[in-house]
Design brief:
Layout: H1 26-37, E1 46-50, H2 56-63, E2 68-73, H3 76-88, E3 94-98, H4 101-107, E4 112-117, H5 129-135, E5 139-149, E6 161-167, E7 170-175
Parallel strand pairs: 1-2, 1-4, 2-3, 4-5
Antiparallel strand pairs: 5-7, 6-7
Length: 176
């Protein structure tokens, strides 16, 4: 895996093979960051990376100047890897929280400019993410929620849905 943009563009990282993850591909990250580049100023963005896995999205955000990133994942191995890699890459703004994502969303009092969620494909609770985010007012004004999901899930009738972008089997639903 590699960082595709920003100050650390081209830096490779190699997560352990035993992590329970399905990382966003480089193709998917390119698509995601093309969407984000036109919508946010990274240096002024407080971000939340849900189901952080290998930390790939957190590293991309940090590499592009985002200095306040919270990465949440329930897996100990994932959290340990993200902490270790963030230290190695000198990304001081990445805070890692080992917790069930839904518990975190229901209990946090923080607010974010960008929330990115990449839940495991097949997770039934995925459809609840926008409801929880907006019910708990976790987005700042003009904030963006992006959920990566398979084609079988549709958010088009969900409140605050803006658009869906399709990239082969990969889908990003965008909320504001």
């Amino acid at each position: 895996m590699r960082i595709i943009g920003g100050t650390h563009k081209g830096r490779a990282f190699h997560p352990p093979k035993n992590l329970p993850v399905r990382p966003t591909t480089d193709f998917g990250k390119e698509a995601l960051f093309n969407i984000l580049t036109t919508r946010i100023n990274f240096e002024q963005t407080k971000a939340l990376d849900l189901f952080a896995g290998t930390g790939s999205i957190s590293y991309e955000l940090a590499s592009r100047g985002c200095s306040e990133i919270t990465a949440v994942d329930a897996d100990y191995g994932c959290c340990s890897f993200v902490k270790k890699k963030a230290t190695e890459l000198a990304f001081k703004g990445i805070k890692v929280i080992k917790q069930n994502v839904f518990r975190f969303l229901k209990n946090t009092t923080e607010h974010f400019d960008l929330i990115f969620a990449d839940p495991p494909f097949g997770m039934k609770e995925t459809v609840e993410i926008p409801t929880i985010v907006f019910a708990n007012k976790l987005l700042n004004p003009n904030g963006i929620l992006i959920i990566e999901h398979p084609a079988e899930i549709s958010f088009e009738k969900t409140g605050r849905f803006v658009e869906q972008r399709k990239y082969s089997k990969l889908h990003f639903s965008i909320f504001s």
